[in-house]
Amino acid sequence: MIRRDYVKFAEMLEHKRRAYEDDIEASRALYNTMTAIADIFAHDNKRFNRERFYRACEPKGGKRD
Description:
Helices cover 71% and strands 0% of the residues. By secondary structure, the chain is mostly helical. The protein has one domain. The longest helix has 21 residues, at 24-44.
């Protein structure tokens, strides 16, 4: 995988985290999924920056439709 693939995953996770921010169970499941994806990326690429990926997955601004 390449950087743009990581970015696409982060964008998708950010969108889902924003959508589920009021649902504790869904948020917890999404967090577990996010960390599992980061594990795969880190295994795939030794230069993968897990903290940068997590920051990219954080919701930005307000909720979108």
